[in-house]
Amino acid sequence: MWNLVLCGLSGILLGVLFSFQRSCPICSKFDYDEKLLERVIRNDILLNDALDKITETKAKVEHVLTRIIEDNAKAVNTLDVKRKELDDNVESFINSVTRNVSVTVEEMKASLKSLVLQTDNELKAKTRQIDEKVEDFFYSASQAVHRNVTDLSSAVQLLVERTASELDIIKDQLKVPTSYFRARITASYTELSGAQDVVFPTVDVNEGQGYDPSTGKFTASIHGMYLFSVQYCVENNKVVHLEIVHGGKTLQRSTEYDSSAYFRCVTMQVSSVVAMGDMVWVRSTESSMLFSDSIRYNSFSGTLIHV
């Protein structure tokens, strides 16, 4: 850009010099100014085109800005060199023709200095505009990045809180509530008739308070899989017929006859899914005789093993 201006100025000076050497009329000052104005306008158009392209993308802005700064530095350096050359040429030209065209030379020198000053001011103004637009662009970009980071941080925080809440729910679901009981018959002899509910009145453990020692029935407070166990001891030369029932439906049955005089004890157990509110108990299926002492327990127990 500055090369074109300087080349144009050099051409004008040479033209003036040749015109004086050929004793031709001096070129019109307005024609000269018009040509200079055209060059300035073309330079201004080029600068405006470069300014429009800056806003396309951040990467292009940085690249173009770097180029502009480099070109500006080169232009300033070139302008200084050309200005010195121009001053030298003008001074030489003035010395060579001062006696004939002193007035014209002074006017031309003033015009050239004014043009240089005007062009320099315009270049500085364009540079300031570019700096302001680049600064605005980076400020807007930084604000957008800050908003995006803030939104992302909020989303991550919300996700962490939601995940923690879901984990707490899962942990609560994985906790198996305690529901366990064990009760015994402490009487030495217990005679049962057919289809009689067996009551175990002495309670050793009753976690969850599901077992009723007055009825001998366990009522589930939690839906899940339960394991029930019954141990009974048989009177010598007697028979015991027992079953574990769930809501009146048989889950497990056992029969034992003792003819050895050892008062043998037998255990039966069964697992079953029991709904909340359902009852499980022990019942005799036929006439039976239970025996109990310090080493022989008649007991009924149950525990929740899975929810």
Automatic annotation (TrEMBL):
Gene Ontology, cellular component aspect: extracellular region
SMART domains (alphabetical): C1Q (SM00110)
InterPro entries: C1q_dom, Cerebellin_Synaptic_Org, Tumour_necrosis_fac-like_dom
Species assigned in the record: Dreissena polymorpha
Compartments where found: Secreted
C1q domain location: 174-307
Major subcellular site: secreted
Identification of the protein by name: C1q domain-containing protein
This protein's UniProt keywords: Secreted, Signal
Pfam families, A to Z: C1q
Signal peptide segment: 1-19
